[in-house]
Structures are given as structure tokens and as C-alpha cells.
């Protein structure tokens, strides 16, 4: 840990360390001792802020969701065209990945495969899904699509597929190097355009 990192508040250091380790190595594979070592914190310090590992995991997911939501909000604030705002999902996640230095797939999808059903972190996994579904539906409606729910489901499928492709590339060297978010956005744009054209003809 650097001197600058050591000067940060303990809770912030613990969340930063947990975020790095949970994302890179997995939640189940990361023990509390590894987080404490990365954060340069004592067990008593951690338990003063978090009831245990489950609470730390939930706080990590909450923090990640808020950072992602803010990034998407920022991108939307730059857009006026309704269709461009709908497609902003792909631009926002590209910006988020660049800003966070993210190399693998989606932290929420990964966590969903690891956390037991009664884990407190599920609150934030559900919140991420609701953000995506509800916002995409509202943006699709504003873009003039007659079935916003169908549009949200289609774009979410492309989004999940693109993030899954990042995870596959991280574990399988030699796959084509094209950016899956660029491809997903292109497919989404073509689908939205076809839907709007079909509506105009009907």
C-alpha cells in the first residue's frame, strides 16, 4: 500500500481493496485476510465499519452501482436525440470500463453466480437490473418505440452478451480483438432503426 493510499479513511481503503480483489479474483475466492492486507487495515478496523464479509460485499456492490449509475447519468446529460439517448447504455458502460480500468465482464453478473439467495448483496444486484430495465424502457418510450418493454429486453440482452464476451476474452487468449460493446451498439442501432421504420410503414 502506498503512502497516499494509507492516508485515505479506513472504510474507503477497505472498499477499494475489496473492489479490486472481489472483481479480479471473485468474491468466494477472496478472504477477509486478503482484503485487510491489501487495505493495510487491522481486523478490528474492518469490523468497526462492516459486520463481516457479507456486509463488505454488499457495500462493494452498492458503491459499484452508484458509480455506474452516475456514469450513465453523465452520458445521458450530454445527449438530446431520443434514439441516441436509448443507445447511450453502450457508450456509458464503455466510459465506465475505461474510467475504472475494468478488463473482465460484469461485476453484477459475476456476483449473481456466487452469492447465496439470502445474501444481503442481492439487494444491489436487483437494483442494477431494475435500473437497466426501467431506464431502458423509459428511454425506448421516449424514442417512440411502441413496445418499450420489448426494446428494453432486446437491448439488455445485447448488453449482457457484450459484457459476457469480455469475460470470455479474459479467460481465452486469441479470440478476435474487436470491442463487443461497439458491435452490440451497432446491432442495437440496427434493431431500433428497423422497429421505427416498421412502425412508420404500418
TrEMBL record:
The keyword Transferase does not apply. Keywords: DNA-binding, Transcription, Transcription regulation. Residues 8-68 form the HTH tetR-type domain. Residues 31-50 bind DNA. GO terms for molecular function: DNA binding. Pfam families: TetR_N. The keyword Transcription applies. InterPro entries: Homeodomain-like_sf, HTH_TetR, Tet_transcr_reg_TetR-rel_C_sf. This is TetR/AcrR family transcriptional regulator.
Amino acid at each position: 500500500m502506498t503512502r497516499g493510499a494509507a492516508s485515505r479513511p479506513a472504510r474507503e481503503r477497505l472498499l477499494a481493496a475489496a473492489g479490486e480483489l472481489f472483481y479480479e479474483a471473485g468474491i468466494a475466492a477472496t478472504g477477509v485476510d486478503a482484503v485487510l492486507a491489501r487495505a493495510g487495515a487491522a481486523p478490528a478496523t474492518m469490523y468497526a465499519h462492516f459486520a463481516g464479509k457479507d456486509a463488505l460485499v454488499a457495500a462493494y456492490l452498492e458503491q459499484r452501482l452508484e458509480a455506474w449509475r452516475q456514469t450513465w447519468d453523465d452520458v445521458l446529460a450530454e445527449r438530446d436525440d431520443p434514439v441516441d439517448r436509448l443507445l447511450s447504455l453502450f457508450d456509458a458502460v464503455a466510459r465506465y470500463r475505461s474510467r475504472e480500468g475494468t478488463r473482465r465482464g460484469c461485476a453484477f453478473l459475476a456476483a449473481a453466480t456466487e452469492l447465496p439467495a439470502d445474501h444481503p448483496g442481492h439487494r444491489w444486484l436487483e437494483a442494477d437490473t431494475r435500473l437497466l430495465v426501467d431506464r431502458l424502457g423509459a428511454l425506448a418510450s421516449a424514442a417512440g418505440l411502441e413496445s418499450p418493454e420489448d426494446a428494453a429486453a432486446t437491448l439488455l440482452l445485447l448488453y449482457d452478451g457484450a459484457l459476457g464476451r469480455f469475460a470470455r476474452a479474459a479467460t481465452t487468449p486469441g479470440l478476435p480483438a474487436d470491442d463487443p460493446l461497439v458491435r452490440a451498439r451497432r446491432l442495437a442501432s440496427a434493431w431500433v432503426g428497423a422497429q421505427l421504420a416498421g412502425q412508420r410503414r404500418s
